[in-house]
Amino acid sequence: MNVKNPLDDLLSSYHFDLPPEYIAQRPAEISRLLVYNLQTDEVIHDVFPNIGKYLPKDSLLVFNRSRVFPSRLIGKKSSGGKAEIFILSAVATNSLYPVLIRTTSKKKIGDCYTFSEGMKATLKEAFSDGTFGVIFNQDNLADYLEKHARIPIPPYIRKGESDDLDRKDYQTSYARETGSVAAPTAGLHFGHELLAKLKEQQIETAFVTLHVGLGTFKPVTAERLSEHRMHSENYFIDEANAQILKEARLKHKKIFAVGTTSLRVLESSYGQNISPGKVYSTNIFLHPGKEILSVDGLITNFHLPESSLLMLVSTLTGREKALELYNIAIKEKYRFFSYGDGMLILR
Fold first, then answer.
1. In contact, 38 and 316? CB cutoff 8 Å
2. Which of 42, 248, 276, 335 is positioned for an S-S bond with 60, CB 3.0–4.6 A?
3. Pairing mode of beta strands 255-258, 60-64
4. What are the counts of helices (DSSP H) followed by strands (DSSP E) for the chain?
């Protein structure tokens, strides 16, 4: 690992103080946009619908079209006590669904949890990472979850208690492939109207799919980044979008990742012989000392202190500049995190 500044490798170097009132609890009617140009070191403040003003003509925006599925089930143990199951993947492995289970009592193999409409989950396996494997007594789990489960908003938004508004708000307008337990939140800014406006400006779009899993909630705990091991996430690129990306690179178009998950896909697949449609796994950890080769810029939200996402942003801008930009955003009263404002980084 090539860390130019030893401080870049310290977790504590990515701390910043954020007043709680700056954490967005709902989406704004019109989000703001902080634009940072790396070449000129210029900072511009605008509103997000004007993002096309700052994108070069014939740019390609790459979105993650993974769809968030309702994954929180509130029910009871057979003893009558309250139980909550958080389903981590919409796909079962050997008939077992990976879940988190929250109860007031100790969990043991064979425990049964009941939910509305006769749905039952039985605990079959406990894993070393603190997750569990359960089976459900109904075949069409996806339909049941759509009707009865809750959208999994992060704990810093209304203490994680979602409502019907979040079913629309916490989903990108172009979401297609079901599988995430957290939204690719930079994409929440792109409604159909803005996408149409960008198309008129001859700005192209491409789509990749990376399903966001449990790891997105896990904080970096190692004191040194060089000791941190990133979680794995599955991604794929279909044939049509793989061709769009290939042509964009051949024509030397400016490529922008919309969100950190899109960037993880682009960087993981860059220079690789990717088979369209094949599912790949990535545990790429982008932080200062690494080099990003796949994009000319990033569109992202403002992230948590000491998070791997802030470290990813720092890979593009440098750690000190990233923290400087965050302090500017705080001073200018930008809204932070999933439902917050956006930032465009131009390389």
1. yes
2. 248
3. parallel
4. 7, 17
Here the tokens at position 249 are 């690179």
**E-strand spans in 202-341?**
204-210, 233-236, 255-258, 280-282, 297-301
Q: What CA–CA distance (Å, rounded) separates 71 from 51?
A: 33
Mean pLDDT of 12-35: 97
Average pLDDT value for residue range 232-242: 94
Helix (H) or strand (E) holding 211: none
Report d(CA 259, CA 236) in Å as an integer.
16
Q: Is the pLDDT assigned to residue 2 strictly greater than 70?
A: no
Burial 24-39 (b: 16+ CB within 10 A, else e): beebeeebbbbbbeee
Q: Mind listing the pLDDT tens digit for each residue in 106-153?
A: 899 999 999 999 999 999 999 988 899 999 998 889 999 999 999 999
Q: Is the entire prediction scored with pTM above 0.90?
A: yes
Cβ burial 291-313 (10 Å sphere, 16+ → b, else e): ebebbbbbbbbbbbbbbbbbbbb
Cα 120–chain centre separation:
30
> 338 with 24: CB under 8 angstroms?
yes
